[in-house]
Amino acid sequence: MGPVDTRVKVRVAAKVNLYLRLATRGDDGYHELSTVFHAVSLFDEVVAERRADDVIDVHTHGGQSDRVRDDATNLAVRAAVLLRAEHGQADQGVHLDITKTIPVAGGMAGGSADAAAALLACSVLGDLDTTPDDLHDLAAKIGSDVPFALLGGTAIGHGRGEQLVPVLTRGSYQWVLALAPRGLSTPQVFRQFDEQIARGEVEPMPQSGTEPPRELLNALAGGDAEGVAEHMHNDLQEAACQICPELRKTLEVGKRAGALVGIISGSGPTCAFLCASQTDARNVEAVLKILPQVHEVRRASGPVPGAQLVS
Ligand code: C5P
Questions:
Q1: Which residue of 35, 95, 187, 237 has the fewest C-beta atoms within 10 A of its own C-beta?
Q2: Rounded mean pLDDT of the chain?
Q3: What is the pTM of this model?
Q4: Do residues 187 and 159 both lie within one domain?
Q5: Cβ distance 270 to 180 under 8 Å?
Q6: Domain span including residue 25
Q7: Do 238 and 153 lie in a common domain?
């Protein structure tokens, strides 16, 4: 890849959180967290193309693209603008073309994934002198989940989610993802969590830097899907279910259909079911598909890599 490239394509994965514990909201408005991110095989594609002028714009197509705003608030545009301001030249315009497969506002970091892909695509397109650390720092400025979208695999996250340590895993995990007909606002789910703390319904994470359970990390290292399922946890699950009570039913039905566990992905409303085998995953998929509150069902496996250059 060199300065002559006029078009660069990057593929980027969605994530689920295998574990998510949150402290109370800090003075900066964010919740310190302890999480285990896991990249799964639902992919968005971002193509970055040179423009003759200095405009940075975006067009999104594919599933649910009508829910994405193709303006300056789009995280991929914000990524390209920030990258240019810090490492590029003011007259370098770029057109971003996003093909969406990751659910929008689904708790699977779809917008963050597009931002990560845009950072990589634009830095290759512009032949910029950016190091992985530079991209990580820019990613953290754009959103809490963007650094993991660059990294991929399975990783422990601290801080807002930007302090990452890769986790050793063995084997491949089978997932069934039940998508809801409408998205959930991440800030709204976090506010619901704050209210739960105020009402004494949940205990926030006691101190910063709390590690995810050793049993979960051991199960991941051993390729033990049942052990992983046993120790999965999401502090935002109850908050998401209070806002969308029908999610409880989806979780229950998926488990009864044979999943090892069902969990809300991130801030929801996507429900992620870990299954022991592809056969079990197909059965769970078939049952979830007929639920009226489920918009669409996808199967995926993880872990998969982070943002990657395709062409
Ligand atoms: O970082 P990002 O813009 O993706 O976060 C979206 C919103 O989610 C924040 O405005 C905040 O309300 C909430 N959030 C939080 N604590 C985190 C991450 C996100 O409260 N660690």
A1: 187
A2: 96
A3: 0.96
A4: no
A5: yes
A6: 7-167
A7: no
